[in-house]
Amino acid sequence: MFTGAEASVEVERTETSVTGQLVPPTSGVVTLLGPDGELAAASADELGCFDFERPPSGLVRLRCRTSSSDLLTDWFRI
After folding, report:
1. What is the DSSP letter of 6?
2. pLDDT digits (tens, 9 = 90+) for 27-65
3. Nearest to residue 50, comparing CAs of 16, 2, 18, 5?
4. Is the pLDDT of residue 2 over 80?
């Protein structure tokens, strides 16, 4: 879990995807970033759930933007 001032994001990695949920639940856009820039973007639904299928391996971070907050996670390895 990554926590910001107004929001948090829970992330789970499986063999085929990276899934997560924004807390508190809200819709928005979640961007998967690598050291060289944007790798993928996903919409978070009204429950805050999002999914990246078959993300590349390596060092990444998430930028989570909603109507009320902007959260940038620490770097983590997938």
Report:
1. S
2. 999 999 999 999 999 999 999 999 999 888 899 999 999
3. 18
4. no
Distance CA 59, CA 57 (A): 7
Total count of domains within the chain:
1
78 in a domain, yes or no?
A: no
CATH number for the domain that contains residue 67: 2.60.40.1930
Does residue 1 surpass a pLDDT of 90? no
Whole-model pTM: value is 0.89
Among 62, 67, 77, 68, residue whose Cα is nearest residue 21 = 62
Helix, strand, coil percentages for the chain (3-state, nearest 5): 0, 60, 40
Q: Which helix (H) or strand (E) holds 10?
A: strand 8-13
